[in-house]
Amino acid sequence: MKNATMLYKLGSEIKWEGIEYDTAIVDEDDIEEKLNDGWFRTAQEAVADAEAKGDADLDGDVTRKEMEVKAKELGIKFNYKTTNESLMAKIEEALNVVD
Fold first, then answer.
1. pLDDT band at residue 59 using 50, 70 and 90 as cut-offs
2. What's the confidence (pLDDT) of residue 58?
3. CB-CB contact of 67 with 57 (8 Å)
4. C-alpha angle with apex 30: 25 to 33, nearest 5 degrees?
5. How many helices (H) and strands (E) would you count in the chain?
6. Under DSSP, is residue 14 helix (H, G, I), strand (E, B) or coil?
7. What are phi and psi of 23, to 5 degrees?
8. Which helix H or strand E contains 19, and what residues bound it?
9. What CA–CA distance (Å, rounded) separates 87 from 77?
10. Does 34 have pLDDT greater than 90?
């Protein structure tokens, strides 16, 4: 591998400063392809992109979008009037989560 470079995207591989990332070490010739696939040259760029898209809640809480995806997977009916708390309760009930 010539001129290896580490790239980042939000994920679950490593946790640094409270944020979880995936990393990839790629050859110089493969950088552009990875960047086009959603990877970033720095962890800060990955965070900024996620914040701009509203894709991540970087405080570690579950985002509304994540709850909606899980609710759809579980066949839970909801609409825009469904509160976050109510939606989370329905998800937890469906998953049989006990505190």
1. low
2. 56
3. no
4. 110
5. 4, 2
6. strand
7. -125, 155
8. strand 19-26
9. 9
10. yes
Please enumerate, as own/partner, the contacts of 42-50 that have beta carbons within 8 Å and a separation of 24 or more. 42/8, 43/8, 43/16, 43/19, 45/8, 46/8, 46/9, 46/10, 46/21, 47/10, 47/19, 50/10
Phi and psi at residue 11, in whole multiples of 5°? -170, -130
| Both tokens assigned to 54 | 């509203």
- CA-to-CA distance for 21 and 9, rounded, in angstroms? 6
Q: For tokens 């470079």, what's the residue? A: 5
Q: What is the pTM of this model?
A: 0.53
End-to-end CA, the chain: 48
> What does the alpha-carbon distance between residue 50 and residue 89 come to, in Å, rounded to a whole number?
26
Helix (H) / strand (E) containing 26: strand 19-26
User: What's the half-sphere exposure (Cβ side, CA atoms, 13 Å) at 19?
Assistant: 18
